[in-house]
Specification:
This protein has 105 residues and is mostly helical. Helix content is 70%, strand content 6%. The protein is built from five helices and two strands, in the order βαααβαα. The chain has a two-stranded antiparallel ribbon. α3 crosses α5. The longest helix has 38 residues. The radius of gyration is 20 Å and the shape is elongated.
Length: 105
């Protein structure tokens, strides 16, 4: 788009171009995982990637598809870990309230 960044739709369209296919092939990056690749490159999780996000991300993901799959897995694991931590804190707070109000502790 005009601000120099790409959203998911624009990114998927760009993946169809010969230039983008050549860039990814040169870096040995599999473009078949477009959504996962976009999410990894979106370092700020704002729904768009800049040229800098793209360059830095592709450099880190250089190599066979296995590297990309591991990176996608790590991002998902981080997200799940954060959700679990939030849930655990909520449960602990509720248990504390229950023990205080039942005078168990």
């Amino acid at each position: 788009n005009k601000d120099g960044s790409l959203n998911m739709h624009e990114f998927q369209s760009a993946l169809e171009s010969t230039d983008m296919k050549q860039i990814l092939a040169a870096l040995d990056i599999d473009s078949s995982e477009a959504e996962g690749l976009f999410l990894l490159l979106d370092a700020e999780s704002n729904g768009s990637i800049s040229a800098e996000d793209f360059a830095n991300g592709c450099t880190r993901l250089r190599g066979p598809a296995k590297a990309l799959e591991v990176a996608i897995f790590m991002r998902e694991l981080t997200s799940l870990s954060s959700a679990f931590l939030h849930h655990r804190r909520h449960v602990e707070a509720n248990l504390k309230w229950i023990t205080q109000h039942l005078d168990i502790g």
